[in-house]
Amino acid sequence: MKIVAERDLIKDEYGNYYLATNVNGDNVTVVNAAVYYAFNRMLDEELLADARNLYPNEVAAGKFFADQVAKHIEQLEDEAVPGGIYDIEEVKEAYDLHVKPLYDESFHL
């Protein structure tokens, strides 16, 4: 198993997905995938236009970012993009895993 930052997803026993944001030797830092996507988009007219193009009716902001995770999962499962989805317990056996909290001052664009 070779985890690649900003490509691979890690799934926990509850069905949550995390994105590897940093890999350094045997250390892997992950963040909840929806939070990762939410913190990497500006709240601006472009985001609103993208959401309006995807959804015919008003939608919660979280739905937009959760759907980005679903698309990432689908691409990995269909092998449309390189990478993998790894079980968190298997990752813990191979790497020293660091999970970033949902609310962290270090999130940035």
Provide keyphrases for this structure.
alpha/beta, 109 residues, 5-stranded mixed sheet, single chain
Show the helix and strand layout.
Elements: E1 9-11, E2 17-24, E3 27-32, H1 33-38, H2 45-54, H3 61-77, E4 85-87, H4 88-94, E5 96-99
Parallel strand pairs: 1-4, 3-5
Antiparallel strand pairs: 1-2, 2-3
Question: Would you mind describing this structure in some detail?
Answer:
This protein is an alpha/beta fold. 37% of the residues lie in helices and 22% in strands. The chain starts with 8 loop residues before the first strand and ends in a 10-residue tail after the last strand.
How would you briefly describe this protein structure?
The chain is α/β, with parallel strands linked by helices and 109 residues long. It is built from four helices and five strands.
User: How are the strands ordered across the major sheet?
Assistant: 4-1-2-3-5
Global mean pLDDT: 90
Q: Give the low-pLDDT segments.
A: none
Give me the count of strands: 5
Number of domains: 1
Largest sheet, in brief, is: 5 strands, mixed
* Overall spatial form: globular
> What is the CA-atom radius of gyration, in angstroms?
15 Å
- Report strand %: 15-25%
Helix amount, in percent? 25-40%
Structural class by secondary-structure content: alpha/beta
Count every helix, treating DSSP H or I runs of 4 or more residues as helices: 4
Return the string of H and E elements. Answer: EEEHHHEHE
Distance, first to last CA: 28 Å
